[in-house]
Each structure stands twice: as C-alpha cells, then as structure tokens.
C-alpha cells in the first residue's frame, strides 16, 4: 500500500475514533419499524454529520464491516481537489467492470483478460494503473489484485449514490 493511502487510512481511522469518543454513550435504539433507523441513530449521536457504513461479504476476506462519519461542515469546507482523481478513476465502464470482477473473486490479470468487458492487455494494464493510483485497487503480488478492505464499502456507496 502506498504511503499516501496508508496515511489517509490512518487519518480516517483516527477521525472515526474521535467521533466515537465525542459521541458519548450509545443512543437508544430506534423503533424497529423506523424506515430511517440509520438516520435516526446518526442524528442522536452526531447531528449534522454524513455517515457511510456497510457490512458485506467479500470473496477471500469474509465479512467486511466499515463506518466513516464526518461533520457536514468539514466536508463542505474541506479540500475537494483530491476527489477528482479518485472519482475519475471510477468514470470508465471498463474500470468499473474490473472492480466488480475483483470484488467477486477474479484476482489475476489473466482471469481479468478472460472478461470481455476489460479490453485488451494494454487497456487492462492502463486501467489497473489508474485504479491502483487512486487507491481503489492494490497489487498483492505481481499480476494479483484486490480491493483494499477499507475501500470496499466506499466503492459500494459510490455505486449506490450513482443510482437515481
């Protein structure tokens, strides 16, 4: 993992720990039939915040549980310049197809090349470089890739947010 990605992950983990400490005791559970149960809990613990969270099974890793919250003001007032490159890496159908294949267990360049949606060898390597540079993929060893565990839920949230 690159130093930049490791530093960003560390910063995220510290921010989550700080939010947990500042939130105090757990909020009382919301009503079982509350369709906005996650929002109700967020408003009780950290009003004015944005929360990403998820619990999913990932091929080769088992369950992945992830949560990240930030005050909305920090997000609005913060630096947005770095977001363009990270989001741009997702803005190509072949790169999204590669991420989907890797998420479901296709881990090697040879396996990826068997998928018609990823293009030629040269195109695949171009897309892999962009996804690794943006932190959406990590090379575990030569020719083997995985989505870093800390990026699985953000990826799925981004895909979810793209739906209308």
Automatic annotation (TrEMBL):
Protein origin, superkingdom: Bacteria
CDD domains reported in the protein's UniProt record: HTH_ARSR
Coiled-coil blocks: none
Domain HTH arsR-type: 85-158
SMART domains per UniProt: HTH_ARSR
Protein name: ArsR family transcriptional regulator
Protein species of origin: Pseudonocardia spirodelae
